[in-house]
Every structure is written in C-alpha cells, then in structure tokens.
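Subgroup meeting minutes
Present: P.N., E.W., G.H.
Scribe: E.W.

1. P.N. recapped why we're keeping a running log of single-chain structure predictions: easier to compare across weeks, and new members can see raw inputs and outputs side by side.
2. G.H. added today's entry (272 aa).
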Amino acid sequence: MIQRSHRVIGRVICVLGMIALTSLAMPVRSAAQEPGTIVARDSRVQGHTYAYDTSREWPLIVALHGLGRPYDWMMGYDGFIDFAERDGYIVVSPLGYHPRGWYGSRGYGNPAGGGRGGAQSTLPENLGELSEQDVMNVLEIARDGYNIDESRIYLWGHSMGGAGTYHLAARYPDIWAGLAVAAPAPRRETIDELASFSRIPVLVLHGDEDSTVPVQGSRSWVARMRELGMQHVYIEVPGGDHSLFVRENPETLSKVFAFFNIVGKDQLGVRQ
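Output recorded in log:
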C-alpha cells in the first residue's frame, strides 16, 4: 500500500544538543503569532515539515546557508521549494549550530571569520566542531526518519555554505553523490582538499562582479579541478553579484537541480 501525507517539501531543522523536552506544571497561554515564529526565536525547538511517498526511495539535498543567515534562509530562494517538489527531493537545511559557525571549514575553534566580538565571543571555543557535527546530526535525522536513496545524497551551499560544502565533501567523501556551490568562500590554503573528493561531480556558480567573495577564488579552484580530472561544471554569471544572482534568479538556481538530476553514485563512474 502506498502511504501519502500532505504534498509539501521536506524540511528538517536541528540545533545540536538543544532538543527541548519541556514539562510545565501549568499550561502557558500566548498571544496569536505567525507560524514558525517560535522556531525562529527559540533554538531549543525543532521544526519538521515533511511529506513523501513511503513506497519509494527519495533523493536528499543538504543545503548550507551563508554567513549570519537563519536555518531556513535557502528555503526562501526564488523557486527553491518549487524545484524541489517538482523533481522529488527531500531537503534539509541545518543551522550549523550557529549562523556564523562555518561548518568546520575554518577549523574546529571559534572561527575568526565569524567575528569574535560581541555575541560571538560568548560562543563555545569548539564552535567549528559543533557546526560540522550539527550538519551530520541533521543528515542522520533525515536518514533515520525518511526513506532516503543512499546513492543520491547531495550537498550544496552558498558563500559560507559553499566553504562548508567543500569541507564536508573532503571529510565525508563517501556520502555525497554530487556537490553544488554558489559564490563559495573557502580558505585558499584548503584547495588541496579537492583531491579528497575528486570522484564527486561538482557544480560551481559564481558571479563575475561579486564584491564580497571575488570570482578569482572559484576560478582557481575550478582550474585545480581540471588538473585533477574532476567531473565539474563551472558557470560564471556575467554581471552576477554575491547573492541575488542565485537567490532571486530561478534560472540560475534551476541549474543546481538540473545538475543533481543527472549525477549519482551509480552514474559518471563515481559508484562508491
């Protein structure tokens, strides 16, 4: 029998170590509020929205947001949910423990690039480690809770999330069937990590007028991919900035889904 639930895109959000189990002596009443505001303001709360046909396996996309953004930022990219529903993906968007955690890509300490002043200085000294682990925790929640196609688990990220994508691909190369990055911001000295995941197909998107993360960085990484014989697609968007060229441009964003639709572990010679 095919079991179905409501037709909405899958989303799983988890903050490491902060799943709330609350017992109250008296019920607490609150004023009317917009849906999702509790999840947005209280990190102890998990938000789950999911729907899928349990009679089949589903491909999974892990989406990593940029610096300072909320956990569901990439869900708001123009066309993102429509494309995911159209092509049958479950999507998870981890916070990465903290909006400036860098997913471990800037080391396992408190990343200097996250701005250590103010609130950042009160965060754990192992923030980078926690940020990486949060992504892996969310991945396991998705694997445990949904019928995921293990040959089609994809990782993609924007800016800081692009750096996290490269880092997590190097750390866990056997998991991913394909990678996509938009305006990625990895540390230059980590370019040799490409050899660790040279079997994984990669899509790189970058605007040539990006003033936040200059395009020369992606050009260097793509040149190294070419030297390693990696299967990759590089799209440099004329006039593209750092964010809007993908966040508010469904035509650019659609290339991520088109790429993931044609790559998998049992295709293109990357069977694990």
